[in-house]
Structures are given as C-alpha cells and as structure tokens.
C-alpha cells in the first residue's frame, strides 16, 4: 500500500518484503568486504548505528567531518560494488513513487542493535538535493521520527517494518528525521537487529 507521509515522501508498505532475504544476503556479503563500524558524531560522541556502504561512494565521518568518499577509510579499498539487485529495487521503488530514472551512487547500510537509534538530523552532504533518497527497512521494526523543515518542527512517529520502502523526494528531502531507539522484540526474518538501506545520488544533477 502507498501512503503519502508529506509532500514528496511516499511510504511503500512491504514493497521489498518478497526480496528481503536476497537483500540481506547482499548486506552480509558487503559487510564481509567493508565491515560495519561506528563513526563519530559531530558532537564528539559515537553513533549508535553501525554503518557500511556499497557503490561508487560511501558516507563517512572522521576528524574532517561528514562526507562521501570513493574509498573505504577502514580498508583503503573502493567500496564493494552496488549489487544490481539494490540499484534495481531502488529504481523500481522510486518509479512507483513517481521519480523516473533514479540511479543511486551510494547504498548506505545502517545496522541498529536493540537500544540503538539515530538523533534528529538533515541529510545534506550530497551535492544535489534534486534526487530522492530511497530507504529500505529490514528486520526489527523502528519508530521513525518525521520532522519538518526546522529542527523545532513537531515530529510524527511513523512505524517502519521489515520490507517497508520509503521514497523521500521533493520538499521532504530536506526535512529533519531520526530513529527512536529500537525496542526489543522477537526476531523478524531471523534478525535480532534492524538494517536500513538508503540509496542516494551524491554528486551529479538528477
Ligand atoms: C528523509 N537513516 O542514514 S531512513 C540516514 O532508519 C538515516 O537508518 C535512518 O536517516 C535509518 O541518514 C532513516 C529514512 C530516511 C533516510 C534519509 C532521508 C529519511 C530521509 C533523507 C532525507 C529525508
Ligand atoms: Fe538521514
């Protein structure tokens, strides 16, 4: 089912459910080449979510700040290739939400153990804000915090479940958002954690 969360933000409930197991196998393969790691926050803390990436660009945080890099600073190697399955799924989801021709340059993979969350933030390290971001939730459910254009805007709580896909484009692309700490629950699809895949265009007009 399709639900417009706000202008440009479309929740495709269960869109990736049938593909979840192959998506998870690809996550496993990526993490063998580019292991999950915990980056530092701008405020000097450590991010609760473990992160890795695939495709031409990966998002990193270090002493020089937040940015996209074409090599993994942990391995010194290029990021693992974007699985065709990832790019294909992201393209189909974007199309279903009304965005033609979406070709991601980064597949960021976040892993949340029980208790981990992500504070309210905007995604603004990409050189273009024209393209949407496509996100895929796998494993344990999350309560996603959906804010507005300002940090102080009220947040809606949107449950995201295994297999849900959200396409964030248009005015929603700049909204503040976060993830409430993941609550303990019976394993979902054999997982005792949550993965979130986000597909992004990083460096060129869409
Ligand atoms: C709305 N990840 O990686 S996905 C992130 O569940 C991030 O791991 C969260 O926020 C997660 O930056 C939320 C949903 C999401 C992702 C990117 C967005 C929503 C977005 C970018 C712009 C607007
Ligand atoms: Fe984000």
Automatic annotation (TrEMBL):
Keyword flag Lipid metabolism: no
Pfam families tied to this protein: 2OG-FeII_Oxy_2
Gene3D superfamilies, per database record: Alpha-ketoglutarate-dependent dioxygenase AlkB-like
Keywords: Dioxygenase, Iron, Metal-binding, Oxidoreductase
Cofactor section: Fe(2+)
Annotated ranges, domain Fe2OG dioxygenase: 102-203
PROSITE patterns, per the entry: FE2OG_OXY
Matches recorded under PANTHER family: ALKYLATED DNA REPAIR PROTEIN ALKB-RELATED, NUCLEIC ACID DIOXYGENASE ALKBH1
Name of the protein in its database record: DNA oxidative demethylase AlkB
């Amino acid at each position: 089912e399709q639900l417009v969360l706000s202008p440009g933000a479309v929740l495709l409930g269960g869109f990736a459910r049938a593909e979840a197991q192959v998506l998870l196998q690809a996550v496993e393969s990526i993490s063998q080449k580019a292991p999950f790691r915990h980056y530092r926050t701008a405020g000097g803390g450590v991010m609760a979510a473990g992160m890795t990436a695939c495709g031409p660009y990966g998002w990193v945080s270090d002493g020089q700040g937040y940015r996209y890099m074409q090599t993994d600073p942990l391995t010194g190697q290029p990021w693992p290739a974007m699985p065709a399955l990832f790019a294909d799924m992201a393209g189909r989801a974007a199309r279903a939400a009304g965005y033609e021709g979406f070709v991601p340059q980064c597949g960021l993979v976040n892993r949340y153990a029980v208790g981990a969350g992500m504070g309210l933030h905007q995604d603004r390290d990409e050189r273009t804000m024209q393209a949407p971001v496509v996100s895929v939730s796998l494993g344990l459910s999350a309560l996603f915090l959906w804010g507005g254009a300002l940090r102080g805007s009220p947040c809606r709580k949107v449950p995201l479940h295994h297999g849900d896909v959200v396409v964030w484009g248009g005015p929603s692309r700049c909204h503040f958002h976060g993830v409430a700490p993941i609550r303990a629950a019976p394993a979902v699809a054999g997982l005792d954690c949550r993965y979130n895949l986000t597909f992004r265009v990083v460096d060129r007009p869409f």
